[in-house]
Amino acid sequence: MTIPHALAAALSQMPALAELFRLFLSGKHLNRMAEPALWAELEQHEASYVGLFAALGFELRLDARGFAWFHSSDANSNIGKISRQLALLFMVIFDAQANAGKALQRFTDWLIDSAWLAEVYKQQQDLLDAEGLNPDALVELLGRACNLGFAVAEPAGWRLLPAVCRYLDHFESLALTAKTDGYEESTPAAEDWTADAPDDEENT
After folding, report:
1. What is the DSSP letter of 62?
2. Helices 114-123 and 77-99, axial angle in degrees (round to 10)
3. How far is CA 40 from CA 53, 73, 148, 149, in A?
4. Tell me, what DSSP letter sits at residue 198?
5. Which of 3, 29, 46, 125 is least surrounded, with the fewest CB atoms within 10 Å of its CB?
6. Under 8 Å between Cβ of 177 and 195
7. Do 83 and 89 touch, CB atoms closer than 8 A?
8. Angstrom distance (rounded) from CA 41 to CA 79
9. Integer CA distances (angstroms), 115 to 19, 52, 150, 169, in order
């Protein structure tokens, strides 16, 4: 089989290639929960997609908990700001739910509505105001989270998607480090939590 024919045969096994490439290139995460058909296609031909994207200069990462993304260690001021704000948003959401006795690993079950988000703002007003995040900005930021595959909008509010595990993993790692180092507080300071937050891109 010639190289062109071999390439055509390989590509024929990846019918969602164009759609997946556009999705990942935009900075969005693919979630099994939100897009099961695309996830099944990616999972079925994982090695082929990973190899092809690597040849194009992109690092595709899949997490067994049900999400995938183009990983990048590059950063710019715009991406850094978005990632920092998302990290802060998720941190205050996790903190409020932990205080309410909710299991953080079940965050995909939570329904977040505007009224509850306003209560979270009151609890963390000084911290959020320092980042310029008022209640309206938090709602807008959740819309941005939807664009990036971290949340999905519903008629009554929003639900977080499995990709938020990237932030939760980081949050728990920082909390464990603080505990190991002997700090009394279990919640890391905002600047610590956001400094090494996962790399995310804005869908512009």
Report:
1. E
2. 90
3. 18, 27, 20, 17
4. P
5. 3
6. no
7. no
8. 29
9. 36, 45, 20, 27
Rounded CA gap, 191 and 71, in Å?
A: 22
- What whole-number distance in Å separates Cα of residue 56 and Cα of residue 54? 5
187: pLDDT strictly greater than 50 = no
Q: What is the pTM of this model?
A: 0.83
Distances (CA, A) of 50 to 58, 70, 159, 164: 9, 10, 28, 22
Place of tokens 């058909």: 37
Strand 151-154 and strand 67-71: the pairing is unpaired
Stated length of the chain:
204
Q: Which amino acid is at 36?
A: P
At 79, list the tokens: 């991406």
The token pair at 61 is 């990462």
Average pLDDT, the chain: 85
